[in-house]
Structure formats: C-alpha cells, structure tokens
C-alpha cells in the first residue's frame, strides 16, 4: 500500500541485500520511522517489542531472522539457536511457528555453505506468498461487502466493524480483515469502518485508523465498549476481524476483546466474519479455548498510555492509582459457533472442521 504516494511493504530487503528493513509500528501514528535489522537478535527484538506485529508479519519477520542468522553463521548450532530464540518471542500467533518450521525444514538438510542463499530466497518467497494470499482474501471478502451494499439499495455506506489491526501493517501487504475493505473501496463501493481503539496497545486507534486514513477509507475510531450499542441500533452491517491462530475446527484466537464483539454480533444478528491466511490455521488443535497459549504482556501496557500533547511532544502517562495491580491478557478465543464465516485465500468457508476441510483437503490425514 502507499504511504504519501510511495508504495511500501511492511518488510523488505535493505539496499545491501542481506539486512532487512521494517516500519517501526511503535512510532505510528505520529512518526513514520523505518528500522534496519541486521542480526537474528534484532529480528527477535522487533517481534517481541512489537516494532512489527500481526500474525502474518510476525511469521515473515521470523523467516528473515533465520536468514540473518544464516548470514552470520550457517552452522547447525546457529540454526537451532535462531529457531529457539525466534520461537520464544511471542506465543499466540501460529504463523511464527509455521514460518520457522518452513525455514528449518528447508535449511537443515543443506550443507552450511548453501544455507544463507536458500534462507534469503525462502524468506522472500514467504513475504511474496503472504501478499498474494492477502490479496486473494480481499477478492473473496469483497463480495460480502458488495452484497451488504446491494441489500441497502446502495444508499449509504456499508458499516464494517473491525477490532485491533488486521490491515496491511499486520501483514506484508493488503492485510487480512481490511483487504476486503480496500478492495471494496477501490471498486467504488461506499464503505465505512468502525475502528475499535483496542486497548491497551491501541492498535486500532493508532494503526488501523492511520492506514485507513492514508488510503482514504472513511472510518471512525470508537472506544472498545461501543460496538455492542452500534450493533443494537443497526449501525453495523458486518464485522470482520483477523485471527492469530485458527483451530482445525474453526475456533479463532484474536486480540483481546474480539470475543465480546462476536457475542454482541450473535445477539443482534450481525454477521461476524474472520479473515485469515492458511498459515494461521493450527491443524494440530481442535479446542481453541483450552489449548491455544494466550500471551500475557507487561502490566505497564495497561497502567500507562502514550500519546502526543497539543504541543507535539510524545509523552507516556500513568492512568491508574499507584499500587493497583493490572493484568494484561493479550488475546481471547472466539468459538466457531459465533463465527459466520472464515474468509480465506481459497474462498469463504463455514467456521467448522468440515468447512476448513473442504478448502484445505491436503491437510486432512
Ligand atoms: O498483538 P498484535 O498487534 O500482534 O495482534 C494482532 C492481531 O490481533 C491481529 O488481529 C491478528 O494478528 C490478525 S493479523 C492480520
């Protein structure tokens, strides 16, 4: 997607060809800053500290981290160590493990002097594949927005509610949940997005609002608790969110608060779609609620907030009383029964074992 007229991906090779560039998402929306990753530790820090985030981008960055590791030292020991270091960065998004497994499976049988080149090539392919996958998610999701528009007699916008950031910043390009929105908007469909702020890290208010604004998509930022009210009053036509891990039975694990939106959508009859690339499916799990690891992050993210003063200074302030403990569960699981459909690169499926099996027959044993 474009930033001030310049096309960007969220991760790309540096000019020298072996280092990697990223957008530092912790600086958005107030500054557009790129960073250079030169080592596997840089890549691990970028993921753990959320300079990059979003399940597909975490996977793509991990793949690059393996390539950086092989550039420095292509030994078996370095391969094993890079895998372990990167896998430990964040626990919930399964794209991380998927990308690391892809890299290790490719690299382990190769001789040391073949590894770096093979690693860069596969990491680049993983990024390109993600772009193609997300574009296809957009193509399959766009008709859902179009038919909501037709249903309204094309009078007034289709109101889509989304949670967190599952736009192009969360992937290599296009996004998952927002890909159908971009494709619909670009096709002239009148679409407006309700953007949940997504406390505590505000990925909605900071990132989703920023990227929708840059692309010219009408949107409104709302506090996290507003969605239920909007749905009760017919002000949401459909919800589309992303997912960090989808079980083989269609449960989805996404940013904390997604479950509450799905409950409200279920109660009010608003369709609740989840957009995902194939690598987000964890085929080893069928019970999301009990088996997906839920990341718990620092309490500081709850007790403190960062923003810009009217004078332009970026400041962090404390918003809780001294001594009050805080808990920071970063994800929750929405059971398949609350999900209207899964929008994938292969089409829209019911959120069920059968639905996913129809789309991914090669994954059935
Ligand atoms: O903690 P984050 O910002 O990495 O969480 C991101 C999300 O929850 C996204 O909705 C999810 O990764 C889907 S991304 C296309």
Architecture overview:
- This protein has 365 residues and is of the alpha/beta class.
- It folds into two domains: 2-129, Up-down Bundle (Four Helix Bundle (Hemerythrin (Met), subunit A)), CATH 1.20.120; 143-363, Translation initiation factor eif-2b, domain 2 (Rossmann fold), CATH 3.40.50.10470.
- The chain is built from twelve helices and 18 strands.
- It has a seven-stranded mixed β-sheet, with helices on both faces.
- Helix 1 packs antiparallel against helix 2, helix 2 (55-72) packs antiparallel against helix 5 and helix 4 packs antiparallel against helix 5.
- The structure holds 5-S-methyl-1-O-phosphono-5-thio-D-ribulose.
- Residues 53-56, 93, 164, 166, 170-171, 176, 203, 242-244, 254-255, 330 line the site of 5-S-methyl-1-O-phosphono-5-thio-D-ribulose (MRU).
Properties at a glance:
365 residues, alpha/beta, Four Helix Bundle (Hemerythrin (Met), subunit A), Rossmann fold, 2 domains, seven-stranded mixed sheet, four-stranded mixed sheet, 12 helices, globular, binds 5-S-methyl-1-O-phosphono-5-thio-D-ribulose
Secondary structure blueprint with pairings:
Blueprint: E1 2-3, E2 6-7, E3 11-13, E4 20-23, E5 34-37, H1 40-48, H2 55-72, H3 76-87, H4 94-107, H5 112-151, E6 158-162, H6 179-186, E7 191-196, H7 203-215, E8 219-222, H8 227-232, E9 238-241, E10 245-247, E11 252-255, H9 258-268, E12 272-275, E13 281-282, H10 288-291, H11 300-303, E14 304-308, E15 314-318, E16 331-334, E17 341-344, E18 347-349, H12 353-359
Helix pairs in contact: 1-2, 2-3, 2-4, 2-5, 3-4, 4-5, 5-6
């Amino acid at each position: 997607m474009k930033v001030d007229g310049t096309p960007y991906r969220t991760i790309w090779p540096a000019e020298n060809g072996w280092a990697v560039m990223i957008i530092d998402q912790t600086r958005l929306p107030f500054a557009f800053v790129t960073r250079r990753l030169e080592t596997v530790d840089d890549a691990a820090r970028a993921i753990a500290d959320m300079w990059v985030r979003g399940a597909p981008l975490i996977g793509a960055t991990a793949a690059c981290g393996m390539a950086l590791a092989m550039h420095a030292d292509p030994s078996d020991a370095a391969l094993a160590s890079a895998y372990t270091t990167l896998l430990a960065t964040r626990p919930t998004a399964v794209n991380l493990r998927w990308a690391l497994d892809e890299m290790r499976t490719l690299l382990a049988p190769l001789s040391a002097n073949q590894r770096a080149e093979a690693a860069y090539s596969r990491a680049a392919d993983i990024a390109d594949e993600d772009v193609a996958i997300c574009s296809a998610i957009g193509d399959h999701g766009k008709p859902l927005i179009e038919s909501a528009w037709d249903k309204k007699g094309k009078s007034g916008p289709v109101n889509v509610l989304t949670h967190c950031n599952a736009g192009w910043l969360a992937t290599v390009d296009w996004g998952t949940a927002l890909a159908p929105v971009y494709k619909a908007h670009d096709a002239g469909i009148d679409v407006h997005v309700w953007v949940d702020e997504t406390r505590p890290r505000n990925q909605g208010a900071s990132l989703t609002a920023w990227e929708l604004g840059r692309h010219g998509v009408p949107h409104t930022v709302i506090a996290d608790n507003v969605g239920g009210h909007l749905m009760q009053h017919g002000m949401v036509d459909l919800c589309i969110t992303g997912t960090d891990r989808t079980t083989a039975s269609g449960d989805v694990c996404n940013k904390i608060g997604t479950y509450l939106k799905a409950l409200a959508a279920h109660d009010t009859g608003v369709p609740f779609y989840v957009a995902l690339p194939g690598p987000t499916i964890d085929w080893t799990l069928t019970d999301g609620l009990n088996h997906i690891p839920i990341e718990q992050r620092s309490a500081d993210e709850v007790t403190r907030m960062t923003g810009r003063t009217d004078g332009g200074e970026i400041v962090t302030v404390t918003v809780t009383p001294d001594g009050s403990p805080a808990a920071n569960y970063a994800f929750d699981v929405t059971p398949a029964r609350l999900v209207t459909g899964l929008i994938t690169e292969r089409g829209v499926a019911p959120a069920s074992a059968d639905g996913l099996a129809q789309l991914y027959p090669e994954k059935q044993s």
